[in-house]
């Protein structure tokens, strides 16, 4: 089977996918090791028996609704490649705006520190709560170092927190893939139900918590996407059981209050929410005591991030 024939087969077999052509190309890139351009130029390349078998198996999985990212084990986010499995959510482009907001906030924090000290003495403390794959916090650290030129010694101390032990292992693996061993002095990984196992006070908390209404989360997973319900269902109580509500805010109600308690004076909380409950989340920020509360839109113009300052 040639690459061209494989593309044609993928297009025919994945009719139920809205992105059959793209799905097939991504799978072929993963199997052959070719980049997008090389794959276009190598249309007559003949797949080995092993490659052909892997391709056919991948198509079968994709036909069931299983995401391409879980098939290949990787997903690009903010220009970086992240390892993913069904134990974590697949990073979504909509979440990249949270990284932008976090970087803007840290730029201001660094500016304030430099104004107060001729030599920077305080390192910002940042928490990535409900970290999952670690795509948010790790993208922040990588961008500060790679794009902004912040030296290792001045990078924030980043604490990654998740209730799932499996998710934390994936987060650690992504940290190892993206950073040399020297950078691990800047990272702390904590398995915890929200802040139960952490007493640290942070300058910045970023979080993409479960915020999908319970019934919708259950319905979403019927399409075969295999993402963890734990990372989607926002209507769970402190014990992880269904709260009986169906607005995606049960966990957020607890988290907002805890974030306020774990921020220093002047600290900032940036939280991703659904476009359907962002305004209610903003009200929860205000009720908890946050000031300067505002909602930022994602690249599609949908309400996505809620920001608030602890004065």
The gist of it:
The chain is of the alpha/beta class. Helix content is 41%, strand content 17%. The protein starts with a helix and ends with a strand.
Q: Distance between the terminal alpha carbons, to the nearest Å?
A: 64 Å
Helix content: 40-55%
Q: Label the overall shape.
A: globular
Low-pLDDT residue spans: none
Kindly name the structural category: alpha/beta
Which percent band covers the strand fraction? 15-25%
Looking across the biggest beta sheet, what order are the strands in?
Answer: 5-4-3-6-7-9-8
- How many DSSP H or I helices? 11
How many strands in all? Answer: 9
Largest sheet: 7 strands, mixed
Element-level helix/strand string? HHHHHEEHEHEHEEHHEHEE
**Rg calculated over all Cα atoms:** 21 Å
- Calculate the mean pLDDT score and round it: 95
Structural features, described:
There is one protein chain. By secondary structure, the chain is an alpha/beta fold. It is 41% helix and 17% strand. It contains eleven helices and nine strands. A seven-stranded mixed β-sheet has the order 5-4-3-6-7-9-8, sandwiched between helices. It has a two-stranded antiparallel ribbon with strand order 1-2. Helix 6 (96-116) packs across helix 7. The radius of gyration is 21 Å and the shape is globular. The chain starts with a helix and ends with a strand. The mean pLDDT is 95.
């Amino acid at each position: 089977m040639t690459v061209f024939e494989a593309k044609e087969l993928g297009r025919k077999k994945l009719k139920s996918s809205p992105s059959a052509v793209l799905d097939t190309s991504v799978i072929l890139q993963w199997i052959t090791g070719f980049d997008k351009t090389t794959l276009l130029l190598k249309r007559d390349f003949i797949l080995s028996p092993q490659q052909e078998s892997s391709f056919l198996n991948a198509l079968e999985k994709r036909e069931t609704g299983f995401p391409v990212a879980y098939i290949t084990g990787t997903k690009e986010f903010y220009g970086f490649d992240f390892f993913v499995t069904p134990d974590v959510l697949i990073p979504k482009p909509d979440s990249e705006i949270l990284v932008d907001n976090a970087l803007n906030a840290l730029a201001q924090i660094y500016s304030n520190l430099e104004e107060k000290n001729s030599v920077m003495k305080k390192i910002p403390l940042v928490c990535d709560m409900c970290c999952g794959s670690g795509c948010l916090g790790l993208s922040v650290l990588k961008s500060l170092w790679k794009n902004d030129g912040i030296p290792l010694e001045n990078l924030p101390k980043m604490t990654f927190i998740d209730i799932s032990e499996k998710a934390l292992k994936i987060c650690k693996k992504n940290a190892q893939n993206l950073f040399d061993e020297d950078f691990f002095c800047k990272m702390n990984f904590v398995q915890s139900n929200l802040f139960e196992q952490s007493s640290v006070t942070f300058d910045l908390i970023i979080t993409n918590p479960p915020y999908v209404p319970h019934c919708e989360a259950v319905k979403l997973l019927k399409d075969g996407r295999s993402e963890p319900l734990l990372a989607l269902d926002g209507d769970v109580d402190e014990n992880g059981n269904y709260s009986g509500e169906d607005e995606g805010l049960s966990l957020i109600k607890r988290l907002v209050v805890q974030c306020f308690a774990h921020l220093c004076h002047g600290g900032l909380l940036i939280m991703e929410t659904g476009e359907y409950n962002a305004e209610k989340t903003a009200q929860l920020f205000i009720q908890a005591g946050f000031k300067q509360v505002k909602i930022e839109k994602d690249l599609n113009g949908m309400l996505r991030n809620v920001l608030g300052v602890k004065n």
